[in-house]
Each structure stands twice: as structure tokens, then as C-alpha cells.
Automatic annotation (TrEMBL):
Designated name of the protein: Glutamate/gamma-aminobutyrate antiporter
GO MF entries: transmembrane transporter activity
Keyword Mitochondrion applies: no
Pfam families associated with the record: AA_permease_2
Subcellular location per the Swiss-Prot or TrEMBL entry: Cell membrane
High-level lineage: Bacteria, Pseudomonadati, Bacteroidota, Bacteroidia, Bacteroidales
Chief location of this protein within or outside the cell: membrane
């Protein structure tokens, strides 16, 4: 996305659409179609307890530290110290690394459906070796392109978001309406219960993944100063964007449920199968390869944009003394090459799980759940930091503030987001009853051991820091508690009261 000058102000609807583009992805619709009408409850519930709190809290934090770099590292570090801040940005980076195989799995399935042989396309899409080859090829291609510079990727991302997400979402809903008007039989029972059966906890794990659908709304917080009267108009943009996002997800999920029986829903293939079935019904099968190309392009454009994106944040923090010099090296045009290579190695190892899991679908689900678990830890840190900073930095200017007076509304919004994240975090460990994931031992091992390794790693790196790790060119601003006098009671978080620089 092109940089916007300070004199340019975004309209409410413009910012709302930017938030929608950043969040919405169609690849998760089949997961929620499993739940029929009750899927709408999950979408609305997650929007109220996660999507809206995330956007509002991130907006306040982003506005507070608009002139200081670090992102979530800054937000959490100002509240709880450098260790917690490093954990937060580490999780944000590693979560995106684990996300790549899952989103590229969907891309590989889309590419498989470019052919006109429906049966053959489905067989190819379910072949784990084909999927593995496509995931690795596309990911490393995107990495090498990133190393050449990403000046043109913004335009590709814009086109990919429109062609690969917004247009297909609208088309899917229109096809469902046409199908019903022409006498098509709905496979979804709309007389079912809106409220789900809360007694079957093993059925809730797929619903927990809906929180990942909404992840990323915190990125919109960086634009809080680019809108007139942010205290009034930013919440408007958040609620409009959230409403559009929920509508796309709810109607898109219903559209899939209308054309595909619940027992036949497949997490990786059903979106393409749904389009294929609709096109067959209206005698326009020739459109199937076109929509498959569009969806694949949307996925690949998004991945290309994100390959280097999250790594830039941890790269900036690393140069301040948090990563060894090896990971601070760049190529001739300033791209963080060694971090990208490390990221690529991790993606390759994760992708090799294809040969262990019983199916492509089971791999897709377990990687999605691990991503959710890690990302939610970061979000819980963010919500906690926002509440804590209301007391620890109560005199700091907040260009955007949740609630005009007092901290009650922040406690409510931040607490709601924290509790919603905690609930989804717990549910993410429950094996889904709808999908064969092999033995429960494999499921729990991957999630628990994987999460532990990822969470422990940044603390090991942090404790191994040396003064020589700090790059002389780094201009990372100190935390507020490093700038205050030592005698001030709140000069630093209790757990790091003696820290004065990343290298000590």
C-alpha cells in the first residue's frame, strides 16, 4: 500500500474497507460451514469479544506510540518490560511463519482445480505430495522475489485482494441466491438452532479457529492519526468494517452450506467444490478454472506481501540488540536476508508434516490451530498491556482513547478481548470430532510441544544477549521507564527494574 502523506486524511468508509481487506480471507469458510446455521453465532460472538476489542485497543496503543518504532514489542514492553515485549513480537513473527503452509495449502488446492476434470482435480488436491511440492515452490519463489525488493508488491496485493477475495465472496453469495431462486435445494437446514450445542466441547475446536479469521485487525491501528476526529470517526470505521467482515463470512459460509451437504464438507477443497457445483447448476462450468485462478492469485499475492512483512518488525527489534548479528544482515538493497532464510527453513520443516499427518485436511487443521494458539498468547499480552498502561502511563497523551473519562470502558473492552482470547486459546487444544487427525497423541504433541518450544525460544535468546549484538545504526527509542528518574516508583516494570539497555 502506498504511503499516505500527513496532509491526506482517510474517510471513514475508506478506512473500514482497508480493515476488511486486511482481515478477510475466504479459505476458512468451509470450517465454519460444518456448523450450519449456528456458524452465524460463532461469527457474531467472535466479532463482539475479539474483532472489535482488538481494533479499538490497538488503535489506542498505536496512537500513544505513533512516533516510536516497535509495534507490539513497544506496546507490551512499555507495560511489562523487554522480555514480555520480545515474546510478543516473536510470537507475531513465528505465527505468520506457521501460517504460510496453511494458506499455501489452500492455494495449492485452488491451482489443482484449474483443470476441467472435476474428479481428477479433487484427487490431485488431496494428494499430499502434490500439495507439499506446490507449497514449497511458491513459498521459496516468494522469498526470492522478496529478496529482490518489494516495491511492486503493494500493487499486486491490491489487485489480489480485489480479484481473489472481495469479488469471489460477492459472487459466491450471488450464486447462492440465484441457485435458490431457480429452485435449487438447500443442503443447509435453516430451521436449525442458532445457538450451538455447548455440551459437546469437542465440536467447538473448529469454532475456535474463527478467531484467526479476525486476526490482523490490530494493523488498522496505525492509521488512527490519518482520519479526521479519530475519537469519533475511528470507532465508526471499526464498526462498519467489522459489520462488512461478519456479513462476508456469514453469507459466504451459508452459500457453501446451501450447495454442499454437511457430511461432504472438506476444509481445503469445499470452497472450490462449492463454486464448481454452482457453475454446473447454471450451465457455466467454464467459469470454474477462472475462479480457481482468481482464488489462487489472491492467496499468492497475500503471501508474497507477508513473506517479508512480519520479519521487518523483529528485524528492527533485533538490531536494537535482541538478535545475534547473523540475523541482522541484509542484502545490497537492505532486505533482511538471513531472517528470510531462517523463516523459509522453518516453513519447509513444517510443510514436511504433510508426510506424517493422515491427510492434507488434518495437516491444515492442526497447523491452523497451532497458529491460533500462538497468536492468541500475543493478543492476551496486548490486551493486558493496554489496561496496565492506563495506570502506569496515565498522564501520557492518547490521541485516540477508549472512553472519554476513567478506565471503566477500557477494562470492559480490554477485559472482553482478553477473556475471549483465553476462551479460544483453551478450546484450541480440543481435537475436532469432524476431522480425522490421526491419534490424539499426535494432535496434543504437536500443539503442546510446538507451543512450548516457540514460547521458550525467545527467553533463551533474550538471556543470551551480548552488548555486541546492538547495531550501531539502530535508533530504537528507549522505553518510558528508561527515560524517567531512578527514584520514580513507576520508572520501570518490577521484573526488569535494573535494565537500562538491550545489551545489558
Amino acid at each position: 500500500m502506498a504511503n499516505i502523506g500527513k496532509s491526506v486524511k482517510l474517510g471513514v468508509f475508506t478506512l473500514a474497507i482497508m480493515n476488511v481487506t486486511a482481515v478477510v480471507s475466504l479459505r476458512g469458510l468451509p470450517a465454519e460451514a460444518e456448523y450450519g446455521v449456528s456458524s452465524a453465532f460463532y461469527y457474531l460472538f467472535a466479532a463482539l469479544v475479539f474483532l472489535i476489542p482488538t481494533a479499538l485497543v490497538a488503535a489506542e496503543l498505536a496512537a500513544m506510540f505513533q512516533d516510536k518504532q516497535g509495534g507490539v514489542f513497544r506496546w507490551v514492553g512499555e507495560a511489562f518490560g523487554k522480555k514480555a515485549g520480545f515474546l510478543a513480537i516473536w510470537l507475531q513473527w513465528i505465527e505468520s511463519t506457521i501460517w504460510y503452509p496453511t494458506v499455501l495449502t489452500f492455494g495449492a488446492v485452488a491451482i489443482a482445480f484449474i483443470g476441467m476434470d472435476h474428479t481428477g482435480d479433487m484427487l490431485l488436491a488431496s494428494n499430499r505430495f502434490y500439495t507439499l511440492a506446490v507449497v514449497l515452490f511458491i513459498y521459496w519463489l516468494a522469498t526470492f522475489i522478496s529478496l529482490k525488493g518489494l516495491g511492486w508488491v503493494g500493487k499486486v496485493a491490491k489487485i489480489g485482494g480485489l480479484v481473489g477475495t472481495i469479488i469471489p465472496a460477492g459472487l459466491l453469495v450471488i450464486l447462492a441466491i440465484v441457485y435458490l431462486l431457480m429452485g435449487g435445494k438447500s443442503q443447509m437446514d435453516f430451521s436449525g438452532n442458532f445457538l450451538p450445542d455447548f455440551t459437546n466441547f469437542d465440536n467447538l475446536v473448529l469454532a475456535a479457529s474463527i478467531f484467526l479469521f479476525y486476526a490482523g485487525m490490530e494493523m488498522g491501528g496505525i492509521h488512527v492519526k490519518d482520519i479526521n476526529n479519530p475519537s469519533k470517526n475511528y470507532p465508526k470505521a471499526v464498526f462498519i468494517g467489522s459489520a462488512i467482515t461478519v456479513l462476508i463470512f456469514v453469507l459466504g459460509t451459508f452459500a457453501l452450506g446451501i450447495i454442499i451437504p454437511q457430511k461432504d464438507i472438506n476444509l481445503t477443497q469445499s470452497l472450490l467444490v462449492g463454486f464448481d457445483n454452482y457453475f454446473n447448476f447454471i450451465k457455466a462450468s467454464w467459469l470454474s478454472p477462472i475462479i480457481a485462478i482468481a482464488l489462487a492469485f489472491g492467496v499468492l499475492a497475500g503471501v508474497l506481501t507477508w513473506v517479508a512483512g512480519p520479519s521487518k518488525g523483529i528485524f528492527a527489534v533485533g538490531r536494537a540488540g535482541y538478535l545475534p548479528p547473523f540475523f541482522q544482515k541484509t542484502n545490497k538493497i537492505g532486505v533482511q536476508k538471513n531472517i528470510l532464510y531462517l523463516q523459509g527453513g522453518a516453513v519447509t520443516l513444517l510443510s514436511l508434516l504433510f508426510v506424517i499427518m493422515p491427510s492434507v485436511q488434518s495437516f491444515y487443521q492442526i497447523m491452523s490451530q497451532l497458529t491460533v494458539v500462538l497468536y492468541l498468547i500475543m493478543y492476551m499480552l496486548m490486551f493486558s498491556a493496554a489496561i496496565y498502561l492506563r495506570y502506569n502511563m496515565k498522564k501520557t497523551n492518547r490521541p485516540f482513547r477508549i472512553g472519554n473519562k476513567g478506565n471503566g470502558l477500557m477494562w470492559f473492552i480490554g477485559g472482553l478481548g482478553f477473556c475471549g482470547s483465553l476462551l479460544a486459546f483453551v478450546l484450541s487444544f480440543i481435537p475436532p470430532s469432524q476431522i480425522s487427525v490421526g491419534s490424539n497423541a499426535v494432535w496434543f504433541s504437536v500443539l503442546i510441544i510446538g507451543a512450548l518450544i516457540v514460547v521458550i525460544a525467545p527467553f533463551i535468546i533474550y538471556s543470551s544477549r551480548k552488548p555486541s549484538w546492538t547495531n550501531s545504526d539502530s535508533q530504537f527509542e528507549p522505553f518510558h521507564w528508561e527515560e524517567t528518574t531512578p527514584n520514580t516508583p513507576t520508572s520501570s516494570p518490577a521484573n526488569e527494574s535494573n535494565e537500562t539497555s538491550p545489551g545489558k
